[in-house]
Design a protein that fits this description.
Strand content: under 5%
Radius of gyration: 17 Å
Structural class: mainly alpha
Largest sheet: none
Low-confidence stretches: none
Distance between the termini: 45 Å
Shape: globular
C-alpha cells in the first residue's frame, strides 16, 4: 500500500491528460465512428504489450539474467523485438475488427487500409516509447527494491494512456 498509493496519485493525473487529449479531437472521433471503436482496444493492447514487457524485464533482472545498466544490453533487445512483433501482428488485426464493427453498426469508417495504417503506425510509435519506459521502470524498481509489478505495470499503463492518445491523434491527423 505504501509503495503503490504515492505512485497512483500522479498517474491519475496522467490519465486525465489522456482524456483531455482525446477531448481536444472529439469532433474527428465523432465524425468517424470507427475511430471511437478503435480507442479502447488500442489502449488495451498497447497496455498489455507494455505490461508483458515490463514484467519480463523485471523478472529477468531479479533472476540475474538481465543486468540493469544505463543502456539496455543483451537479451533486452530480444524482448524489445518481441514487443514490436506483437504490435505488428495485433494492431492490423484490431484495426480490421474495428472497421468490421463499424460496418456492422452502420457507423462511418475511413476504410480498412486507413484503419490498419493508423493503428499500426500509432502502435509502433507507442511501443517504441514503451520499450524505453519499461526498461527504465524495471531498472528503477530493481535498483530501489520495489515490487516490479506494483511499480512498472501502473507506470506503463498510465504512460500508454497518454502516449497512446497523442500517437493516435497525431497519426489520424496525418493519415486523414
Amino acid at each position: 500500500m505504501q509503495e503503490v498509493l504515492p505512485l497512483l496519485i500522479p498517474l491519475c493525473v496522467l490519465g486525465a491528460f489522456a482524456g483531455i487529449a482525446y477531448s481536444a479531437s472529439l469532433d474527428r472521433f465523432v465524425s468517424v465512428g470507427a475511430l471511437l471503436i478503435l480507442i479502447p482496444p488500442f489502449a488495451g493492447i498497447c497496455g498489455s504489450i507494455g505490461g508483458i514487457l515490463c514484467s519480463r524485464l523485471g523478472t529477468g533482472m531479479h533472476l540475474g539474467v538481465i543486468t540493469p545498466a544505463i543502456a539496455p544490453q543483451g537479451s533486452v533487445t530480444v524482448h524489445f523485438a518481441q514487443a514490436y512483433l506483437f504490435t505488428l501482428i495485433l494492431m492490423p488485426l484490431m484495426a480490421a475488427l474495428a472497421h468490421l464493427a463499424a460496418i456492422v453498426l452502420g457507423v462511418s469508417s475511413p476504410g480498412l487500409l486507413a484503419m490498419v495504417t493508423i493503428a499500426t503506425a500509432a502502435g509502433l510509435g507507442v511501443i517504441t516509447m514503451v520499450n524505453g519506459i519499461a526498461y527504465l521502470t524495471a531498472t528503477l524498481s530493481f535498483r530501489y527494491g520495489f515490487d516490479p509489478d506494483n511499480f512498472g505495470i501502473p507506470v506503463i499503463t498510465s504512460a500508454i494512456d497518454l502516449l497512446g492518445a497523442v500517437a493516435l491523434i497525431t497519426v489520424i491527423e496525418i493519415v486523414l
